[in-house]
Amino acid sequence: MPVLDDIAPQLAAQAIELPSWAFGNSGTRFKVFSTPGTPRTIQEKIADAATVHRFTGLAPTVALHIPWDQVDDYAALARYASDQGVALGTINSNTFQDEDYKFGSLTHSDPTIRRKAVDHHLRCLEIMAATGSRDLKIWLADGSNYAGQQDMRGRQDRLAESLAEIYAQVGAEQRLVLEYKFFEPAFYHTDVPDWGTACAQVTALGERALVCLDTGHHAPGTNIEFIVMQLLRLGKLGSFDFNSRNYADDDLIVGAADPFQLFRIMVEVVRGGALDPASSVAFMLDQCHNVEEKIPGQIRSVLNVQEMTARALLLDRAALTAAQEAGDVLGAHQVLMDAFYTDVRPALAAWRESRGLPAEPMAAYAASGHQQRLAAERIGGTQASWAS
Ligand code: PSV
Ligand code: MN
Ligand code: MN
């Protein structure tokens, strides 16, 4: 079995993008709770993301959601981020909070609504030019609640046309990533419900159109690591939205509900070459912190990804292959479980310290007094979806 020194280069290269909205107050339809020190502006959200990066060395970029993170001058925002020690990353479009999109956006039967939705994405591409972002991420709430309510076939065709119009404007160094989700807010059919639909739609567009896999967007019991394997095998995995779930799209801290699932996903990530230097797969969090503090919530999250990545990298691949090929069912399973049960935390703490990072980022942040300073300085933090 490899040791931590063997996998240090891959760990050193690991980068996990943070979502701006993770730093805002969020909740359920029952109540949005606030936490002291919550950011009031997108600049403060970026500053908080930079704090997570300072304590972990793992989170060099921040994703924006448009129009939640709307500003007049995106180039200035990118400079602000750079001054804080991070860069702006993925631009997420938003066509789900406007009355006009009640019956769909890119799939709508009314050409004027489709035009508005396509134009929003073209605006996102302009923003990407100013922020230097590579990825446009599209998640659509489009769907219907009742059988017969909508013509699913017509909507799929219109989706293809709308995406083609957007893709035509995606720059040579940019990418379009399409995120699927099996239900919610639509409860009967969703226009991009699964990886197969997303993959079919992006494959029709071209090479720089890829799929985003949000770990919370599958039916219970789905073998998500199989989907990871298949999309990597097809060269169509663009990015991850990491989070964990017990029931639906819970958006809880990644690796909290099912650490073993995160490990199995990372094993396929490693197997599929997605940690190799040449890989362009983006690793992002898509989480909300409803009751816990946000900065430590994000620190915990990136550390969870790092720990499961280390365990996956420690998997003795040669021993696994030998057992698999010998038909040694329990032997193969044990090789996998040996890696999963390896406690990498002490070795990772020492390794972080050797790189000038806190050995224990959670404890270091708690001891820093930063949270108390923010609570004293910031009064009236915003809700995640009302940013800036
Ligand atoms: C939809 O559930 C989603 O996962 C998409 O990624 C959105 O952009 C994000 O959540 C924020 O609500
Ligand atoms: Mn998502
Ligand atoms: Mn989601």
Automatic annotation (TrEMBL):
Listed GO MF terms: isomerase activity
Signal peptide (residue range): none
Positions of the Xylose isomerase-like TIM barrel domain: 72-225
This protein's UniProt keywords: Carbohydrate metabolism, Isomerase, Manganese, Metal-binding
Protein known as: L-rhamnose isomerase
PANTHER family listed in its UniProt record: L-RHAMNOSE ISOMERASE (PTHR30268)
Gene3D superfamilies referenced in this protein's UniProt entry, alphabetically: Divalent-metal-dependent TIM barrel enzymes
